[in-house]
Description:
The chain is of the alpha+beta class. Helices cover about 45% and strands about 15% of the residues. Helix 1 (about 1-35) runs antiparallel to helix 2 and helix 3 (about 90-100) crosses helix 8.
Amino acid sequence: MPCLMRLLVCSLLSVVGVQGFYLYPTIHAGKSALKTSSSDYSVSDQQRRDLLVASTATTFAAMLFLGHTQAQSASKLETTSTKTLSLLENVDQALEYIDAECDRRFLHAVVASDYQLLYKGLSSAQNQIALSSAPDNLLQSSSDDAPLFRTLEEAMQPQPLQPSTSRIAVANAVAAQRMGATVCSIWPLGPNVHFAWLEHGTSFRGTWDTEMIVDGVDCGRMSLEDALESNKEILFRSERYLAVPLSMEQELVQKLKNSFII
Protein backbone atom coordinates (compact mmCIF):
# COMPACT_ATOMS: atom_id res chain seq x y z
CA MET A 1 0.00 0.00 0.00
CA PRO A 2 2.78 2.55 0.79
CA CYS A 3 4.40 1.77 -2.60
CA LEU A 4 1.08 2.31 -4.38
CA MET A 5 0.63 5.63 -2.59
CA ARG A 6 4.11 6.79 -3.57
CA LEU A 7 3.50 5.74 -7.18
CA LEU A 8 0.24 7.69 -7.31
CA VAL A 9 1.79 10.81 -5.80
CA CYS A 10 4.82 10.64 -8.10
CA SER A 11 2.56 10.23 -11.14
CA LEU A 12 0.52 13.27 -10.18
CA LEU A 13 3.61 15.34 -9.52
CA SER A 14 5.06 14.26 -12.88
CA VAL A 15 1.92 15.39 -14.68
CA VAL A 16 1.95 18.66 -12.77
CA GLY A 17 5.62 19.15 -13.56
CA VAL A 18 5.08 18.68 -17.30
CA GLN A 19 2.01 20.91 -17.23
CA GLY A 20 3.86 23.60 -15.33
CA PHE A 21 6.85 23.31 -17.69
CA TYR A 22 4.71 24.10 -20.72
CA LEU A 23 2.77 26.82 -18.93
CA TYR A 24 5.83 28.65 -17.67
CA PRO A 25 6.95 30.23 -20.99
CA THR A 26 3.46 31.58 -21.67
CA ILE A 27 3.02 33.03 -18.19
CA HIS A 28 6.57 34.37 -18.13
CA ALA A 29 6.00 36.04 -21.48
CA GLY A 30 2.81 37.58 -20.13
CA LYS A 31 4.65 38.92 -17.11
CA SER A 32 7.33 40.40 -19.37
CA ALA A 33 4.68 42.09 -21.45
CA LEU A 34 3.15 43.49 -18.29
CA LYS A 35 6.33 45.44 -17.62
CA THR A 36 5.87 47.41 -20.85
CA SER A 37 2.12 47.76 -21.05
CA SER A 38 -0.51 46.41 -18.70
CA SER A 39 -3.14 46.51 -21.45
CA ASP A 40 -1.05 44.08 -23.54
CA TYR A 41 -0.93 41.46 -20.76
CA SER A 42 -3.70 38.90 -20.84
CA VAL A 43 -4.10 35.19 -20.21
CA SER A 44 -6.51 33.23 -22.37
CA ASP A 45 -9.35 31.23 -20.85
CA GLN A 46 -7.62 28.03 -21.89
CA GLN A 47 -4.44 29.09 -20.13
CA ARG A 48 -6.42 29.93 -17.00
CA ARG A 49 -8.06 26.51 -17.09
CA ASP A 50 -4.68 24.83 -17.59
CA LEU A 51 -3.21 26.77 -14.69
CA LEU A 52 -6.17 25.87 -12.47
CA VAL A 53 -5.82 22.19 -13.37
CA ALA A 54 -2.10 22.26 -12.59
CA SER A 55 -2.67 24.06 -9.30
CA THR A 56 -5.47 21.72 -8.26
CA ALA A 57 -3.44 18.65 -9.15
CA THR A 58 -0.50 19.97 -7.15
CA THR A 59 -2.68 20.59 -4.11
CA PHE A 60 -4.30 17.17 -4.42
CA ALA A 61 -0.95 15.43 -4.71
CA ALA A 62 0.43 17.35 -1.74
CA MET A 63 -2.64 16.48 0.34
CA LEU A 64 -2.28 12.81 -0.50
CA PHE A 65 1.38 12.83 0.43
CA LEU A 66 0.79 14.82 3.63
CA GLY A 67 -2.11 12.63 4.68
CA HIS A 68 -0.06 9.49 4.13
CA THR A 69 2.87 10.95 6.08
CA GLN A 70 0.63 12.06 8.96
CA ALA A 71 -0.99 8.63 9.10
CA GLN A 72 2.43 7.01 9.38
CA SER A 73 3.48 9.51 12.07
CA ALA A 74 0.26 8.96 14.02
CA SER A 75 0.79 5.23 13.85
CA LYS A 76 4.31 5.58 15.21
CA LEU A 77 3.11 7.94 17.94
CA GLU A 78 0.40 5.49 18.94
CA THR A 79 2.84 2.62 19.27
CA THR A 80 5.69 4.50 20.95
CA SER A 81 4.00 7.13 23.10
CA THR A 82 1.10 5.31 24.72
CA LYS A 83 3.50 4.22 27.43
CA THR A 84 4.49 7.80 28.17
CA LEU A 85 1.41 10.00 27.69
CA SER A 86 -2.34 9.51 27.88
CA LEU A 87 -5.04 12.19 27.82
CA LEU A 88 -7.93 12.08 30.27
CA GLU A 89 -11.43 13.22 29.40
CA ASN A 90 -12.38 15.27 32.46
CA VAL A 91 -11.61 16.30 36.04
CA ASP A 92 -13.67 13.46 37.51
CA GLN A 93 -11.40 10.96 35.80
CA ALA A 94 -8.37 12.78 37.21
CA LEU A 95 -9.88 12.56 40.69
CA GLU A 96 -10.11 8.79 40.33
CA TYR A 97 -6.37 8.61 39.67
CA ILE A 98 -5.61 10.99 42.56
CA ASP A 99 -7.77 8.93 44.91
CA ALA A 100 -6.19 5.65 43.86
CA GLU A 101 -2.54 6.56 43.31
CA CYS A 102 -1.52 10.05 44.43
CA ASP A 103 1.09 10.15 47.18
CA ARG A 104 -0.71 10.75 50.49
CA ARG A 105 2.11 12.82 51.99
CA PHE A 106 1.82 15.15 49.03
CA LEU A 107 -1.97 15.39 49.36
CA HIS A 108 -1.73 16.15 53.07
CA ALA A 109 0.88 18.85 52.35
CA VAL A 110 -1.40 20.40 49.73
CA VAL A 111 -4.33 20.56 52.16
CA ALA A 112 -2.19 21.77 55.08
CA SER A 113 -0.79 24.59 52.90
CA ASP A 114 -4.34 25.66 51.95
CA TYR A 115 -4.03 24.12 48.51
CA GLN A 116 -0.68 25.49 47.45
CA LEU A 117 0.02 23.34 44.40
CA LEU A 118 3.08 22.15 42.54
CA TYR A 119 3.40 23.29 38.92
CA LYS A 120 5.32 22.36 35.84
CA GLY A 121 5.54 24.13 32.49
CA LEU A 122 5.09 21.72 29.58
CA SER A 123 6.49 22.45 26.14
CA SER A 124 3.52 20.98 24.27
CA ALA A 125 0.35 23.04 23.99
CA GLN A 126 -2.55 21.13 25.48
CA ASN A 127 -5.84 21.82 27.17
CA GLN A 128 -6.45 18.32 28.46
CA ILE A 129 -5.39 16.48 31.56
CA ALA A 130 -2.34 14.35 30.79
CA LEU A 131 -1.21 11.17 32.50
CA SER A 132 2.53 11.00 31.91
CA SER A 133 5.10 8.33 32.63
CA ALA A 134 7.79 9.84 30.41
CA PRO A 135 11.11 9.56 32.27
CA ASP A 136 12.94 12.76 33.10
CA ASN A 137 16.67 13.09 33.55
CA LEU A 138 17.79 16.48 34.76
CA LEU A 139 21.40 15.62 33.93
CA GLN A 140 20.44 15.90 30.26
CA SER A 141 19.10 19.40 30.75
CA SER A 142 20.53 22.09 28.48
CA SER A 143 19.68 24.83 30.97
CA ASP A 144 22.06 26.81 33.15
CA ASP A 145 21.14 24.51 36.04
CA ALA A 146 22.76 21.42 34.46
CA PRO A 147 26.20 21.83 36.17
CA LEU A 148 24.50 22.10 39.57
CA PHE A 149 22.46 18.97 38.92
CA ARG A 150 25.63 17.06 38.07
CA THR A 151 27.11 18.15 41.39
CA LEU A 152 23.91 17.22 43.23
CA GLU A 153 23.95 13.81 41.55
CA GLU A 154 27.06 12.89 43.51
CA ALA A 155 25.95 14.54 46.74
CA MET A 156 22.55 12.79 46.70
CA GLN A 157 23.71 9.24 45.98
CA PRO A 158 22.67 7.95 49.44
CA GLN A 159 19.20 9.47 48.97
CA PRO A 160 16.12 7.81 47.38
CA LEU A 161 16.20 10.27 44.48
CA GLN A 162 18.84 12.02 42.40
CA PRO A 163 18.61 14.47 39.49
CA SER A 164 19.08 11.57 37.06
CA THR A 165 15.84 10.00 38.31
CA SER A 166 13.86 13.17 38.98
CA ARG A 167 11.64 15.77 37.46
CA ILE A 168 11.53 19.40 38.54
CA ALA A 169 8.47 21.47 39.40
CA VAL A 170 7.81 24.66 41.34
CA ALA A 171 5.19 25.72 43.87
CA ASN A 172 4.42 28.85 41.88
CA ALA A 173 2.36 28.96 38.69
CA VAL A 174 4.00 32.15 37.39
CA ALA A 175 7.52 30.76 37.87
CA ALA A 176 6.49 27.57 36.05
CA GLN A 177 5.98 29.55 32.84
CA ARG A 178 9.73 29.64 32.22
CA MET A 179 9.74 25.83 32.11
CA GLY A 180 7.22 25.64 29.27
CA ALA A 181 4.30 27.35 27.57
CA THR A 182 1.52 25.27 29.14
CA VAL A 183 1.44 25.51 32.94
CA CYS A 184 -0.15 22.54 34.73
CA SER A 185 -0.52 21.50 38.34
CA ILE A 186 1.38 18.27 39.01
CA TRP A 187 0.09 15.28 40.97
CA PRO A 188 2.73 12.57 41.56
CA LEU A 189 1.37 9.02 41.31
CA GLY A 190 2.65 5.64 42.37
CA PRO A 191 4.01 3.88 45.45
CA ASN A 192 7.59 5.18 45.41
CA VAL A 193 7.32 8.99 45.44
CA HIS A 194 10.03 11.22 46.89
CA PHE A 195 10.70 14.97 47.01
CA ALA A 196 13.77 17.16 47.55
CA TRP A 197 14.45 20.89 47.63
CA LEU A 198 17.16 23.35 48.58
CA GLU A 199 17.39 24.06 52.30
CA HIS A 200 18.43 27.64 51.57
CA GLY A 201 16.97 29.58 48.68
CA THR A 202 14.01 28.98 46.43
CA SER A 203 15.39 28.23 42.98
CA PHE A 204 18.17 26.03 41.63
CA ARG A 205 18.92 28.73 39.08
CA GLY A 206 22.17 30.56 39.70
CA THR A 207 23.17 28.73 42.90
CA TRP A 208 25.80 26.17 43.87
CA ASP A 209 24.18 25.32 47.19
CA THR A 210 24.04 21.56 47.65
CA GLU A 211 22.31 21.47 51.04
CA MET A 212 19.14 19.54 50.28
CA ILE A 213 16.09 18.50 52.29
CA VAL A 214 14.67 15.15 51.23
CA ASP A 215 10.97 14.39 51.83
CA GLY A 216 10.80 16.89 54.71
CA VAL A 217 10.47 14.25 57.41
CA ASP A 218 13.38 15.32 59.63
CA CYS A 219 12.24 16.98 62.83
CA GLY A 220 13.11 20.67 63.00
CA ARG A 221 13.66 21.03 59.26
CA MET A 222 11.37 22.37 56.56
CA SER A 223 8.45 20.07 55.71
CA LEU A 224 6.89 19.54 52.28
CA GLU A 225 4.04 21.79 53.39
CA ASP A 226 6.57 24.54 54.20
CA ALA A 227 8.26 24.06 50.82
CA LEU A 228 4.94 24.52 49.01
CA GLU A 229 4.15 27.65 51.00
CA SER A 230 7.63 29.03 50.26
CA ASN A 231 7.21 28.70 46.46
CA LYS A 232 10.20 26.35 46.28
CA GLU A 233 11.46 24.56 43.21
CA ILE A 234 11.10 20.89 44.08
CA LEU A 235 12.64 17.76 42.62
CA PHE A 236 10.26 14.83 42.65
CA ARG A 237 10.54 11.20 41.72
CA SER A 238 7.46 9.20 40.75
CA GLU A 239 6.52 6.44 38.37
CA ARG A 240 4.11 8.81 36.63
CA TYR A 241 2.14 11.97 37.28
CA LEU A 242 -1.01 13.86 36.33
CA ALA A 243 -0.65 17.25 34.66
CA VAL A 244 -3.81 19.36 35.01
CA PRO A 245 -4.00 22.61 32.96
CA LEU A 246 -4.63 25.83 34.87
CA SER A 247 -8.00 26.18 33.14
CA MET A 248 -9.20 23.12 35.08
CA GLU A 249 -7.47 23.82 38.38
CA GLN A 250 -10.37 25.58 40.08
CA GLU A 251 -12.77 22.74 39.30
CA LEU A 252 -10.25 20.16 40.48
CA VAL A 253 -9.52 21.92 43.78
CA GLN A 254 -13.20 22.45 44.50
CA LYS A 255 -13.97 18.78 43.92
CA LEU A 256 -11.00 17.78 46.07
CA LYS A 257 -12.34 19.92 48.90
CA ASN A 258 -15.76 18.28 48.58
CA SER A 259 -14.40 14.76 48.38
CA PHE A 260 -13.42 12.31 51.09
CA ILE A 261 -10.05 11.54 49.48
CA ILE A 262 -8.16 13.15 52.37
